[in-house]
Amino acid sequence: EVQLAESGGALVQPGGSLRLSCAASGFNFDDAVIGWFRQAPGKEREEVACISTSDNSRTYYPDYVKGRFTISADSTQGTVFLQMDSLKPEDRAVYFCAGRRFGRSAYEIWGQGTQGTVTS
Length: 120
Prior knowledge:
By secondary structure, the protein is mainly β. 0% of the residues lie in helices and 50% in strands. The protein has strands at 3-7, 11-12, 18-25, 32-39, 46-52, 59-60, 69-74, 79-84, 93-101, 109-110, 114-118. The strands form two sheets. Strands 2, 4, 5, 6, 9, 10 and 11 form a seven-stranded mixed β-sheet that branches. The chain has a four-stranded antiparallel β-sheet with strand order 1-3-8-7, with no helix packed on it. Strand 9 and strand 10 (109-110) form a beta hairpin. The radius of gyration is 14 Å and the shape is globular.
């Protein structure tokens, strides 16, 4: 079965850090693009990072998280991590990981999400 499973969501204070994990199974992890997305209450889903596991681990970050979020992949574990530092209240959201085969434009599989809450 092809699936992605997120973990690591927690409650943190502003300025704190969280490390999310996305465990992949059932597809070729070494030839994929894995992305992290988030959706806050009342807002549309937005991408926060992605990594190409086959293209020299090329990464992408939108400006609103650049310098604070870091995506990485461990092919031996089939897991992608999202390290989030200097968290702000506006980072509060449900975080999802998604996967697609390298070269495909649309994400083909999604995880169930994990809640990341930033509050004082």
